[in-house]
Amino acid sequence: TDKKTPWNIKLWYFTHPDDDHNGLTQPWINYLKSHGYKAPNIENVAFNYASQRAREGYGKSSTSYQMINYINTNYPNVNYIKLHTGMVLNIGELNIEVLGSIENMVGKNGKIPEGYDTNDTCTIARFTIAGKKFFFCGDTGNHSDVQNIHLSLYSNTYFKSDVNQIAHHGINMLARLNRYIDADYVLVSNGYEVFVANNMMNNINYFETLVAPDKIYYA
């Protein structure tokens, strides 16, 4: 690509405040710059993270603060979008539906119940572009109630999408949600060989009940 022309990032979307979902921001931009590229432009950053008040000791990870501080310092004019359940955004040709967020997990006392972790507070969203729907589960679903909470907000048929990013790097097999998404293609943010090496062939077998093996894309 043309190293003189910086990439223009219309939207940078963060699902939840775990290190492996926030830690790439600064290193990736520094990597581009060290290889002769201009730093990218970032127009919008979107997320909804728990405050420390939501549960003691449950705030953002250190990399979340580093990500936010880095963007604040280097992109002072960036537009922050706090994602809420039911929100619909249109950015260029991209339509974004926020189907679930942390506020669904908060109890009547304003706190996140014990037993939940940061994965359970993932923002789940569906991106539609060129008439195709991409469902992003993030790391959703460690807690047994999470899947049911999200499913209770919509009719089963509403989830139908063309492409499904399987939750939590292919670890969380949300059977009901995946069945309702009923996608033609599955994205697994993990390597095939990782599942084999860790004796997790049951996960691979499960993905193949959703779509044919040649329609599963591993990272």
How would you characterize this protein structure?
With 219 residues, this protein is an alpha/beta fold. The chain is 26% helix and 21% strand. The chain has 7 helices and 12 strands. It has helices at residues 19-22, 25-34, 62-74, 144-151, 175-181, 192-197, 201-210; strands at 8-9, 12-13, 41-42, 44-47, 79-82, 88-91, 94-100, 124-129, 132-136, 163-165, 185-188, 216-218. The strands form 3 sheets. It has a 7-stranded mixed β-sheet, covered by helices on one side. It is globular, with a radius of gyration of 18 Å. It starts with 7 loop residues before the first strand and ends with a strand. The model has no long low-confidence stretch (mean pLDDT 91).
Q: What's the topology here?
A:
Layout: E1 8-9, E2 12-13, H1 19-22, H2 25-34, E3 41-42, E4 44-47, H3 62-74, E5 79-82, E6 88-91, E7 94-100, E8 124-129, E9 132-136, H4 144-151, E10 163-165, H5 175-181, E11 185-188, H6 192-197, H7 201-210, E12 216-218
Parallel strand pairs: 1-3, 2-4, 4-5, 9-10, 10-11, 11-12
Antiparallel strand pairs: 6-7, 7-8, 8-9
